[in-house]
Amino acid sequence: MMKFDRARWEYWWQEWIKPVIIAAILAFFIRTFVIQPFKIPSNSMYPTLRPGDRIFVSKFIYGARVPFTGIQLPEVRPPEFGDIVVFKSPVEKKKFLVKRFIASGGDTVEIKDGRVYVDGEEKDSGKVGNFFYYNRGEYGSEGGKIKVPENYFYVLGDNSANSMDSRYWGFVPDENLVGKAFLIHWPIRRIRLIDGTGKR
After folding, report:
1. Of residues 3, 18, 42, 44, which has the active-site annotation?
2. Rounded CA separation 123/76 (Å)
3. Residues 63-75: pLDDT tens digits?
4. 90 vs 75, 167, 171, 173, 199, CA distance in Å?
5. How far apart are CA 160 and CA 157, in angstroms?
6. pLDDT above 70 covers what percent of the chain?
7. CA angle 81, 83, 87 (to 5 degrees)
8. 99 is catalytic
9. Which of 5, 54, 27 is nearest to 187 (CA)?
10. pLDDT of 2-23, one tens digit each?
11. Which of 99, 123, 127, 180 is catalytic?
């Protein structure tokens, strides 16, 4: 019978096992509550984000949620018009989407002549001023004024001609919000802060 080697066990524990466990716990904490990486799979946010771009998403800014509970941590600030946000798809439950935040619960959205209006006010800031938004889908038809239900939000893709967004499938539950995209970290030539203006 093999004798237990305490000195050898302590060596492995201190030099390998313990650091790996600590690193795993820290990685889990950071990914769950602070920052999470995502990869852009489509051109729905082109040219702001392009297929293959790898981004970092701030989870703490809107208040990260504790897994398997209904608990949400305090937010730094709520989502604002023009923020580029990542959220769980309201249609495909295991899929994450990235779009531009347009309106919160209680707001009224209208798309007219390619422009976005929220509560009757034209949103012509740099965050959407570079894009033309098409009247398409049940929730983006011409002349339609869409009231966003409480505890939901409305999103649009920058590449409006090729984006499946709230115009088609409606509203996203607030609880589906993951965080705000703030940095493209790969590929090297695309490394930049995401300023939200849609500039190339």
Report:
1. 44
2. 24
3. 999 888 888 999 9
4. 22, 13, 8, 7, 28
5. 6
6. 94
7. 115
8. yes
9. 54
10. 667 788 888 888 888 888 888 8
11. 99
